[in-house]
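Morning!

This is the sequence you dropped in the shared folder:
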Amino acid sequence: MRAAAAALALGLLLVAAGCGNGTAATATSSGTDSASLVPASALAYVSADANLDSKSWQVVTDLFGPIVGTDADYKRDIQPALGDRVNLAVLGVEDGKPEAVAIVKPTDVAKLRALATKFDRGTEHYTVESIGGWSVVADSAAAFQSVRDASTETSLADDADFKSAMSQVGDSSFATAYASGAGVEQLPAKLRALVRVAGSPRWVAAGITADKNALHLDLRAAGASTPAAYKPALLDDVPSGAILAVSFKDVNQLLARIQAEPTLRASLPPLLNGLKSLGGEGVLYLLPGTLLPVITLEVQARDPAAAAKSLRAVAAQAAKVLPLRVERHGNNVLLTNAAAGTSPGSGSLLEDQPVKDAFAAADVPAEVTWLAYADIQRLAPILQALASLTGKGQSKPSATPKLEKFGTLVAFGARSGSMSKVEVRLTTR
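The structure's back. C-alpha cells below.
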C-alpha cells in the first residue's frame, strides 16, 4: 500500500467502525507473531487488538463509548476480515509515500478481499495472498515477495533492536508499535523535529494496555540523549489537596532545543519566551479556589534574581487574562495568582494517601526526568469550562471521554543508561 491513509486505515478500521459492548472475553494473539513475516529492514510495525469482545476493548468502550458505527456492523463485516489482531508493517517510503502491508488471520478471507478492494485508488489495487499461514494485504508484487523472503529468511522478529523493544513494552498489549531510527526519519518535518528535541533515539517502541483498573501507556526509546534524571524535591512544597502537579527541571534547555528547530520555533506561545532563562528544578501546581483555581509556578533557580525578572515579564504578558504576581523566598521564586498573604494550608501533596497509592501503583522511581499527577475528577470541571470558553465543548457524546469514569493520572519520564522511557497510568473508576 502506498497511500498513508490506506496503510493506516486497514489497521485502524476497527476504531472507525466503532467499539461495541461485547460481553465475552476472548484472548488475542501475541503482538509479535506476525513479525516473522516482516522484513528486518522494515521501518515500522504496529499490532492492535481487533476483537471487540476482548476485555481490553470492553474497557475502552466503557470509557469512551462507541466512536462511530455499530457493534453489529463491525462484527458482521470487519472482524471476520481481520480476525483477532491486525498487524501493519511499513516496508519503505517511495516519493514520500509509505509502502505498507497488512498481516492478519481472518475467519472469512472473502470478506478480507472485499475490505481490501475498498482502499483501491487509481493504479493501486490491493489484493490478498496467503503466506506462512497468514493473509497478507498489499498492492505490489514486490511487497508480497519481501514478505515471502522474510518468512523463510531473516525477519523483523530476529532483529536485536526489535526483540529488545518488545521485551520492554510487552508483545500482548492492546496495541503495540515499533519504529526504527530510519523509520523515524521518514516522519513529516514537524514530527522529525520533535524527535530531535527528544534526543534522536535509535528506535522507539510503545505498548498500550487496558484493564478494569487502568489504562497504561509504556513508551521506550534507545540511545536518546535525554536530560539527566533528578529527585523531584520541590513536590514536597506542593500543598495537600492539589488537583494537578507537574515537576520538571531545566525548562530553559528544553526551550532552547525547540528554538533550534525552525519548524517548531513559531509554534512556541509568546508567553513561554519568558521561561527561556529558567534553569534548575521547578514545579507547577493547581489548587482549588473560590472563583478561579490557584495556579502556582515555583522554581528553585540557580540565579533567583534573573528568574524573578523573567517571571515578572511573564506576569506582565498574562495580566489581561490572569493577574499574577511574583514572590521570592531565598533561592525559590514563585509566580502565582494567589492573593498576597494567602496560606495554602498545612501538609504536602505527597502526604495525601490517594497520591501515595497512585504513585505506588504507577511504580514511580525515585529519580525522574519529569513527573505529573492529576486528580481527573476534580480537574474535569475546569477542563470542561475551558472547553466551553474555547468553543470545543460541543463535541458529539460518542466521541467524548466519560470523565466521571477516570480517577487519577500519573505520568513520568525516566532513564537507565542509554534507555529512556515515558509511562502514563490513568486509573478508572
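Headline: Residues 1-28 have pLDDT under 50 and may be disordered.

More detail when I'm at my desk.
O.
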